[in-house]
């Protein structure tokens, strides 16, 4: 076992990893930028090392600073969490060069699966279903036209490097193709330093279903169940649940076998996720994330596993504690990503100071968070505040529990996605499990109308509060926070209603 682990990340995921380290009797080291000097995770760790400049390139993405922090504190392992350096093969190379163990996969696996063209070709070789598309990168417009015509519109243009849906563009006609090709190449070069793009057949209403993988260095590979991640905005996940509402034992076995086959084919070892698009009874490989996922808590709940601890133990050289037959899915879990964003303004970021905070609790509620009262959410990083997770014996139980938990959650001073999630919990299509990756766009009008109702209900609740329970200033602060979701025109319209 490691004696000391440096967490090369921040916020709620840093605390989550530190909790696992404490249970394994390992010391933890936090690194922090100037913007995170007062963050909760820096105090939760056994030691903290400053990185200086808050710019990600000068702090959490600076491999030299991370390695030096590990060497200076005597850390024998580094856990990158997700985001930042989690899928950067150079971190692994530098760890190996300096005698530090990286808690994650080998650099070659990160490189192979991080390139969408290479990973797709590998999965085709492995016998995993893939979507029809170009076998290599493309930059010639005329060739792109021929390929798109052969595949059949609509098609989608994707960046080969990177992830998170950045730069992806659906194309429905030849007239759109040239503009979309140039735009995707530009975004790919800017974000990933690689302008390589490729073309695939576009599935118009697929579900996004992924399988959690655990693999050790002795050739043991298992899947730890499925997750539904179809509710997204701009290809970024907003809500996940486990298991998928459409999952059957037979489908889980088939898709799980494909996920395991994908990991085994490349000799993968660590925690990872194989993602699929599911459409009309068929499923296709989308990508493999060679790291722990944001949504890992829902899998932990329904399978009674600790994925972070398993990931650390694998890095220590231990054999998997589980065989495939040990993994059973029990009950249902839902995760809402609570971000500092205004969902009524196309999810525009809304960082700032939290002037009031009350977290939800009670049976079946888990909150992974890194914020507190009077904490200022920085402008430099992802807008996530917390991950609110509820569970129950059935999907309906988990939904009702989420409704209750969301009603208890109070965050003042910044706009959040809480109204959005409240609206989703009332949406008839969501309640019926009728989901696809365009769910938010398809139901945009209804969701926005429901959010307006939710916010007005919250305002009415504020007005009913008595000063004996909450000081007048605090009531004013809640009212101001809730009220600012609306711009002046919206507020006037609401009054007329």
UniProtKB/TrEMBL annotation:
Q: What InterPro entries does the database record attribute to this sequence?
A: ACC_Biotin_Carboxylase, Acetyl_CoA_COase_biotin_COase, ATP-grasp, BC-like_N, Biotin_carboxylation_dom, Biotin_COase_C, CPAse_ATP-bd, PreATP-grasp_dom_sf
Q: PROSITE patterns annotated for this entry?
A: ATP_GRASP, BC, CPSASE_1, CPSASE_2
Alphabetical UniProt keywords: ATP-binding, Ligase, Magnesium, Metal-binding, Nucleotide-binding, Pyruvate
Q: Which coenzymes or cofactors are required? A: Mn(2+); Co(2+)
Is Magnesium among the key words of this record? Answer: yes
Please give the name of this protein.
Pyruvate carboxylase subunit A PycA
Task: Please tell me which top-level EC class this enzyme sits in.
Answer: ligase
Q: Which Pfam families match?
A: Biotin_carb_C, Biotin_carb_N, CPSase_L_D2
Q: What is its EC number?
A: 6.4.1.2
The yes or no answer to whether the keyword Transit peptide is present is no
According to the UniProt entry, its GO molecular function terms are: acetyl-CoA carboxylase activity; ATP binding; metal ion binding
Domain named Biotin carboxylation is located at 1-445
Q: Where is the ATP-grasp domain?
A: 120-316
């Amino acid at each position: 076992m490691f004696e000391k682990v440096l967490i090369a990340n921040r916020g709620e995921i840093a605390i989550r990893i530190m909790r696992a380290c404490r249970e394994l009797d390992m010391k933890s080291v936090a690194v922090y930028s100037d913007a995170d000097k007062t963050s909760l995770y820096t105090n939760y760790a056994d030691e903290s090392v400053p990185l200086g400049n808050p710019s990600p390139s000068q702090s959490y993405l600076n491999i030299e600073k991370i390695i030096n922090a590990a060497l200076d504190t005597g850390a024998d392992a580094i856990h990158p969490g997700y985001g930042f350096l989690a899928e950067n093969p150079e971190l692994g190379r530098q760890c190996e060069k300096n005698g530090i163990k990286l808690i994650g996969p080998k650099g070659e696996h990160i490189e192979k699966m991080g390139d969408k063209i290479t990973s797709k070709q590998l999965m085709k070789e492995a016998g995993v279903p893939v979507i029809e598309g170009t076998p290599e990168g493309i930059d010639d417009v005329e060739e792109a036209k021929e390929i798109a015509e052969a595949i059949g519109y609509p098609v989608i243009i994707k960046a080969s490097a990177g992830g998170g849906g950045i730069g992806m563009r659906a194309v429905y006609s030849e007239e759109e193709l040239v503009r979309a090709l140039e735009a995707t190449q530009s975004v790919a070069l800017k974000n990933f330093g690689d302008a390589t793009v490729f073309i695939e057949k576009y599935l118009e209403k697929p579900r996004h279903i992924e399988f959690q993988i655990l693999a050790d260095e002795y050739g043991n590979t298992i899947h730890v169940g499925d997750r539904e991640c179809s509710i997204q905005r701009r290809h970024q996940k907003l809500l996940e649940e486990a298991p998928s509402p459409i999952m059957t034992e037979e489908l889980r076995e088939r898709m799980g076998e494909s996920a395991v086959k994908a990991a085994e084919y490349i000799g993968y070892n660590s925690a990872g996720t194989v993602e699929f698009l599911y459409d009309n009874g068929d499923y296709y490989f989308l990508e493999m994330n060679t790291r722990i996922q944001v949504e890992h808590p829902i899998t932990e709940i329904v399978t009674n596993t600790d994925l972070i601890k398993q990931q650390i133990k694998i890095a220590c050289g231990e054999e998997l504690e589980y065989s495939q037959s040990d993994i059973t899915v029990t009950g249902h879990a839902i995760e809402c990503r609570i971000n500092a964003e205004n969902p009524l303004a196309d999810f525009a970021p809304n960082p700032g100071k939290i002037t009031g905070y009350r977290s939800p609790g009670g049976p079946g509620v888990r909150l992974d968070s890194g914020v507190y009262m009077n904490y200022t959410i920085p402008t430099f990083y992802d807008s996530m505040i917390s991950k609110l997770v509820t569970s129950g014996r059935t999907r309906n139980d988990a939904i009702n529990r989420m409704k209750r938990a969301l009603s208890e959650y109070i965050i003042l001073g910044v706009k959040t996605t809480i109204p959005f999630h409240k609206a989703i919990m009332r949406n008839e299509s969501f309640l019926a499990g009728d989901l696809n990756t365009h769910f938010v766009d398809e139901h945009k009008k209804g969701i926005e109308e429901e959010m307006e109702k939710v916010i007005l209900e919250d305002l009415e609740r504020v007005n009913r509060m008595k000063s004996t329970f909450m000081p007048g200033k605090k009531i004013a602060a809640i009212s101001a926070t809730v009220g600012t979701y609306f711009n002046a025109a919206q507020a006037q319209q609401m009054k007329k209603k």
